[in-house]
Amino acid sequence: MADTPVYNASEPSGGDPLKVNVNTQFEGFEWNYTYIVFCGFIVWLIIPGIGLLYSGLARRKSALALLFQSLMIVAVTTFQWIFWGYSLAYSRDASPFIGTLKNFGLKDVMAAPSPGSAVLPEIVFCFYQLLFCACTVMIVVGGAFERGNMLPSLVFSFCWATVVYCPVACWTWNSNGWLYNLPSLDFAGGGPVHIASGWSALAYALVLGKRKHVDETSHGKPHNTTLVFLGTTLIWFGWFGFNGGSALNASVRAMLAAFNTNTAACTGVLGWVLVDSIKNRGKFSVVGACEGAIAGLVGITPAAGFVSVWLAACIGFLTSIVCALLQDVNNWLHIDEGMDVFKLHGIGGMVGAFLTGIFASQSVAALDGATEATGGIDGNGMQVGKQLAEVCAISAYSFTVSCILLYILKWIPGMHLRVHEEAEMIGLDRAQFVDEQIGERAILDELFVSSSSTPAHASVVNESLGISTGSKDLKM
């Protein structure tokens, strides 16, 4: 077996490629970082998967905006990560709360052994973690659906990744982070990805306020269930890389994490469908099954590399049951968070983190040949308290800082977080995209068949579209 590469602080970039072959230090480990790169490629599919899911759940007149936003989010987040995001999260001289700018602009991030795993070149580790950040930001913007202005949402995404995601990632995964050293157990992002995004999406929806002219049951009828199904399958597939690669090596632990991922998603489907069938007297819901799969995936994320397959099945099932039973949580909170980001990711992430403290096993964590961890199932009941500390800290920080950031942006001249009422009525697609790219019939159908529309609303809409109310020559 090849010797494990050792980081040399005098050559932080891993060596001068003009003088030495920087690949030599990783000889014998090529299979390992090839596997992580492949995992990164399939994690990328989660981003358009979320775009398709959101697009299918939204009304037709705002579907295109959500697809476009998925590409813009990955573009903006990549720039943020290169600019200073990676350094703030993973610099080797980080404080317990935030990194430094030592790697600003990816300075010295190249061929040295990474801070996450000595058998990974740092550029591979950086790329893989970038996709985690992009997925998280994409989840967050679901809180603004059908009324969030595009440009301010992209500005918010850059700032949110900087002041929320990067600090929380540093707490959780940087070897200097306070949660890492507590330790709380978070294998693949129950805290930084799901709890943080869920609470931040709730903050986004709160600051924007409720949608206008929408009846209370409209969100229960997605405009395109096929898109919801397709988006969910891409997310499910991408999650194999999300959890399977989080061991940061191609070990037995990584393979178990991938198996646990599929197991929890499947039992999540079963749990949600069970609740739906009881509520609906034996009738089923495709959207409900998709939500169950996502709830199961969220629940197993912090635990995937810490539990056995049967316990993964329990976690997926229990998480989906809890989320399904909280179907009306947005009504209870009087917040219009129509994409259910808080319910699935916020609540699901908290349930998963809690169950990780109960079920985590040192013998499973040690399957990668290096990790030592003690969980509740091994007799360390204090681990549950540490998991709750993670849940409380990340929840409070994410929600509070997100609210502050959104209110700051809201009061900046010209930075309108929410579109005007007329734009919301005609749809984000008509308001923010060139006409040639929009299916006019889909938009007009959405406008005129709505039973909630009043004559006054129709008049505003027709005026904004340039349509005379007396005209019978509409091109449908």
CATH 4th-level superfamily of the largest domain: Ammonium transporter AmtB like domains
Q: Give the C-level CATH assignment of the largest domain.
A: Mainly Alpha
The span between the termini is 69 Å
CATH architecture of the largest domain: Orthogonal Bundle
Instruction: Tell me the CATH topology of the largest domain.
Output: Ammonium transporter fold
Q: Tell me about the biggest sheet?
A: none
Question: Can you tell me the residue ranges where pLDDT is under 50 for at least 5 consecutive residues?
Answer: 216-220, 440-476
The residue fraction in helices comes out at 55-70%
- In total, the number of strands is 0
Query: What integer is the average pLDDT?
Result: 87
Structural overview:
Residues 216-220 and 440-476 have low confidence and may be disordered. The chain starts with 29 loop residues before the first helix and ends in an 11-residue tail after the last helix. It is built from 19 helices and no strands. 61% of the residues lie in helices and 0% in strands. With 476 residues, it is mainly α. The protein has helices spanning 30-44, 46-57, 63-90, 122-140, 150-173, 178-181, 190-208, 225-244, 252-279, 286-300, 309-325, 329-333, 341-359, 362-365, 382-410, 421-426, 428-432, 440-448, 455-465. The protein folds into 2 domains: 25-410, Orthogonal Bundle (Ammonium transporter fold), CATH 1.10.3430; 421-465, no CATH class. This is Ammonium transporter. Belongs to the ammonia transporter channel (TC 1.A.11.2) family. Pfam families: Ammonium_transp (PF00909). Residues 36-434 form the Ammonium transporter AmtB-like domain.
